[in-house]
């Protein structure tokens, strides 16, 4: 799978841990594109971290049953889609306008607690068949 200027050919090309962006009603699929208007401080930090690294973000739905963690954050669906930032612009009023290109679906293995990060991160297992 090619996303922007990078080819992802095998599961080894996919990092084991990624930032995850739970967004209800938003579905990214492999090969698809998703424009996003980022304004919440923790997700601004997530985009900055992704841009400084591998430019990958895991889009995932909140759990369909509405389950909530003890900290008030929604539980996550078991499957999401990894997206690569292929377009980035600053709005001038504190927002980022980005476009994600869908790389592959992933199964959420476990969330990773990183106290110095305001956004959520998770260990993932990619669907290798999506990379063919």
List the helices and strands and how they pair.
Blueprint: E1 2-3, E2 6-7, E3 17-22, E4 33-38, H1 41-52, E5 56-62, E6 76-90, E7 96-112, E8 120-126
Parallel strand pairs: 3-5
Antiparallel strand pairs: 1-2, 3-8, 4-7, 5-6, 6-7, 7-8
Keywords:
mainly beta; 132 residues; two-stranded antiparallel ribbon; 1 helix; 8 strands; 5-stranded mixed barrel; 47% strand; globular
Structural commentary:
- With 132 residues, the chain is mainly beta.
- It has 1 helix and 8 strands, in the order ββββαββββ.
- The protein has one helix at 41-52; strands spanning 2-3, 6-7, 17-22, 33-38, 56-62, 76-90, 96-112, 120-126.
- A 5-stranded mixed barrel has the order 3-5-6-7-8. Strands 1-2 form a two-stranded antiparallel ribbon.
- The radius of gyration is 14 Å and the shape is globular.
- It starts with a strand and ends in a 6-residue tail after the last strand.
Put simply, the count of helices is 1
**Structural class, from secondary structure content?**
mainly beta
Contiguous runs where pLDDT drops below 50 for at least 5 residues: none
Number of strands: 8
Portion in strands: over 45%
The N- to C-terminal Cα distance equals: 6 Å
Q: What is the N-to-C succession of helices and strands?
A: EEEEHEEEE
Mind summarizing the main beta sheet?
5 strands, mixed, barrel
Helix content: under 10%
Alpha carbon gyration radius: 14 Å
Q: Strands of the largest sheet, in order across it?
A: 3-5-6-7-8
Q: Averaged pLDDT, please?
A: 92
Question: What global shape is seen?
Answer: globular
């Amino acid at each position: 799978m090619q996303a922007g200027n990078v080819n992802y050919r095998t599961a080894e090309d996919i990092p084991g841990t990624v930032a995850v962006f739970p967004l209800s009603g938003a579905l990214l699929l492999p090969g698809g594109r998703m424009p996003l208007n980022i304004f919440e401080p923790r997700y601004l930090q997530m985009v900055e971290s992704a841009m400084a690294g591998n430019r990958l973000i895991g889009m995932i739905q909140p759990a369909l049953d509405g389950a909530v963690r003890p900290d008030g954050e929604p539980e996550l669906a078991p499957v999401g889609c990894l997206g690569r930032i292929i377009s980035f612009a600053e709005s001038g009023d504190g927002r980022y306008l980005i476009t994600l290109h869908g790389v592959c679906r992933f199964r959420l293995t476990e969330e990773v607690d990183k106290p110095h990060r305001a956004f959520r991160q998770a260990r993932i297992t990619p669907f290798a068949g999506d990379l063919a």
